[in-house]
Write a structure and sequence with these properties.
disordered C terminus; mainly alpha; 0% strand
Length: 226
């Protein structure tokens, strides 16, 4: 069981790395290739500039979304948690982008020609479109990673419990090791719900196996065979 838990944590850490580093790097490379930055800043300068505008805001949004997830608990769906996190991170991201852009303009003055006048209608429209695209991308990637890879970074406890139960509804065979663990947990007085969570099975499955083995949960107020 410890090995399984370790492998699960390792897998989640690998997905974290891909999400927080791989995704923004791919998006940054796309912007560098399609945008005018290489012609103005050179290959190295454009790469550093675009990466700084991609990775740090992405991770800042992740930090804020994590706080939203912890605060929301079980009340909100994942897509809404991601949306609130992206919107709440907006002021911090905008401040960071403003500072980095100001530094870049000092080094490459030609960049200033690419930016519309501050607080003009064009500037506000550009900022709104950029923010909207960023929010949509963030929500899409969070949901896609969760649904396709089982990524649990921002998911609520209820969603994760449901996902684990779905994996066990296929009727996995009980092994001698499973029976030994079941006996051990029952001897420790664990209720069926806690045993089901530990063994990644449904409560009904735990009760049925307990009854079949002729076992009985000794926890006060709970009889698994009922």
């Amino acid at each position: 069981m410890e090995l399984v838990a370790h492998l699960r944590l390792l897998r989640q850490a690998s997905i974290d790395l891909v999400f927080f580093c791989g995704v923004p790097i791919v998006l940054a490379i796309t912007s560098a290739v399609l945008g005018p930055y290489t012609a103005i800043m050179g290959g190295t300068g454009a790469t550093v500039y675009i990466l700084s505008l991609a990775i740090v805001p992405w991770c800042l949004t992740g930090l804020v979304t994590q706080l939203v997830s912890k605060s929301a608990g079980r009340r909100l769906p994942l897509w809404l948690i991601a949306a609130i996190g992206a919107i709440a991170a907006g002021p911090f991201v905008s401040l960071y982008v403003y500072v980095i852009s100001a530094i870049a303009v000092d080094i490459w003055p030609a960049l200033d020609a690419l930016r519309p006048a501050a607080f003009s209608a064009e500037h506000l429209k550009s900022a709104a479109l950029s923010e909207g695209r960023a929010i949509v991308l963030w929500i899409a990637f969070v949901v896609i990673f969760h649904e396709t890879l089982g990524w649990a970074r921002f998911a609520s406890p209820v969603a994760e419990a449901s996902r684990e139960e779905r994996f066990q509804l296929s009727g996995a065979e009980w092994t001698a090791e499973d029976d030994a663990l079941l006996r051990s947990l029952i001897r420790n007085g664990e209720p069926p719900r806690a045993i089901a969570l530990e063994m990644k099975r449904t409560v009904a499955g735990i009760r049925a196996r307990t009854a079949k083995l002729g076992l009985r949960n000794n926890r006060i107020g709970d009889r698994s065979a009922n």
